[in-house]
Amino acid sequence: MALDTIETIRNRRSIRHYKPDKIPGEHLRAILEAGRQAPSAKNLQSWHFVIVNDPQLKRKVAAACHGQHWMAEASVIIAAVDIPTEYERWLKVNTTIAMQNMILAAHSLGYGTCWIGAFDENKVGELLHVPEDKQVISLTPIGLPAIQPDARPRKDLAEIFSVNTYERPLEALL
Question: 82-90 long-range CB contacts below 8 Å, 24 or more apart?
Answer without folding.
Answer: 82/46, 82/47, 82/134, 82/135, 82/137, 83/46, 83/47, 83/48, 83/134, 84/46, 84/133, 84/134, 85/44, 85/46, 87/41, 87/42, 87/44, 87/46, 90/40, 90/41, 90/44, 90/46
